[in-house]
């Protein structure tokens, strides 16, 4: 059975303990047990709980965007090996719900597993750091986020220089190669504190022999590339945009059906028939508007309901019973004709 990943509330991904547990968790799907009548009530409850836990963390689909991000970063990691300054980085940007956080965390997980496989050395090693930019962040707050990931004890009496120097020393010692910084849209270069946070991140990138990856919502629209500091960021970082899936052309519709089929194949339900969801691919597109996060939530939520109600197969009624995010629920559903028109006019 799949090991349950249930980190303590004080061990999120933004701590080395939470990140390590998440990276090393078992992703193998649980095996279906067909002779359920031979299970005791306790065994059946355990079996259901394992599958409920599995569907709460369904597989990540290796979409073309994730493939491009991983390929780009692998290239940058090599290019940056002998750079002593002005290392190149990547910014993943796009609308909310299009998989930015999923993409960079999967990138980090793949890189860390690869490092540990190639270099099974003993001793402390932290090849990947994952932090988020707090709202209304200051340079010290960002430095403390790095320290918190590492578990370094810093109090209010320690100044930003103390925190920064300690963080850089530790990350160099533990062989950090990849720094993932999420929620970068919380930085506004039009404010003094935002400009100072940008400078702090730049200082980290110059002190650490690592490749930096930023992720945020529509970063160009929020002004990340504006002004002198923004131009410097633009000159050092490539950008990859995440977008909703399109549904206009036959190829786009085939890609969407393939995505639905991949998610459907990962289900672990007793009576669900293959291709049931792919037959509803247009309905799923209308419900989710091509948003990968909404689609995953819809299918996983329906799967959980079928386990709880004992039917063990997803029907359209199960799908209709799932409440999605506000954006998906309030945006008018696009018809195939409208989607085709969007495709022809270049609207994603």
Automatic annotation (TrEMBL):
Residues 86-334 form the AAA+ ATPase domain. It comes from the Bacteria. InterPro entries: AAA+_ATPase, P-loop_NTPase, TniB. This is DNA transposition AAA+ family ATPase. It comes from Saccharopolyspora antimicrobica.
């Amino acid at each position: 059975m799949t090991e349950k990943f249930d980190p303590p509330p004080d061990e999120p991904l933004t701590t080395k303990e939470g990140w390590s547990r998440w990276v090393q968790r078992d992703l193998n799907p649980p095996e279906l047990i067909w002779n359920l009548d031979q299970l005791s009530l306790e065994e059946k409850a355990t079996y259901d709980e394992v599958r409920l836990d599995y569907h709460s963390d369904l597989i990540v689909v290796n979409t073309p965007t994730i493939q491009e991000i991983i390929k780009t970063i692998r290239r940058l990691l090599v290019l940056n090996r002998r750079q002593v300054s002005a290392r190149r980085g990547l910014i993943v940007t796009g609308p909310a719900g299009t998989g930015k956080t999923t993409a960079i965390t999967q990138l980090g997980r793949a890189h860390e597993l690869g490092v540990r496989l190639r270099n099974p050395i003993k001793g402390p090693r932290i090849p990947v750091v994952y932090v988020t930019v707090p709202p209304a962040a200051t340079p010290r707050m960002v430095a403390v986020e790095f320290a918190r990931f590492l578990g370094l004890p810093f109090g209010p009496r320690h100044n930003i220089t103390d925190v920064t120097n300690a963080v850089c020393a530790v990350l160099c010692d533990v062989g950090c190669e990849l720094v993932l910084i999420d929620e970068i849209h919380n930085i506004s270069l039009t404010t003094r504190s935002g400009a100072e946070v940008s400078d702090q991140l730049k200082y980290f990138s110059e002190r650490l022999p690592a490749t930096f990856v930023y992720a945020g919502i529509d970063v160009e629209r929020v002004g990340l590339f504006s002004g002198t500091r923004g131009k410097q960021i633009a000159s050092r970082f490539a950008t990859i945009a995440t977008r909703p899936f399109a549904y206009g052309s036959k190829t786009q519709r085939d890609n969407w059906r393939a995505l639905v089929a991949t998610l459907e194949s990962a289900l672990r339900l007793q009576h669900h028939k293959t291709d049931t969801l792919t037959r509803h691919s247009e309905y799923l597109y209308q419900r989710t508007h091509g948003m990968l996060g909404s689609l995953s939530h819809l299918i996983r939520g329906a799967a959980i309901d079928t386990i709880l109600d004992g039917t063990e197969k997803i029907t359209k009624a199960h799908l209709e019973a799932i409440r999605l995010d506000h954006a998906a629920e309030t945006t008018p559903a696009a018809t195939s004709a409208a989607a085709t028109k969007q495709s022809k006019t270049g609207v994603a």
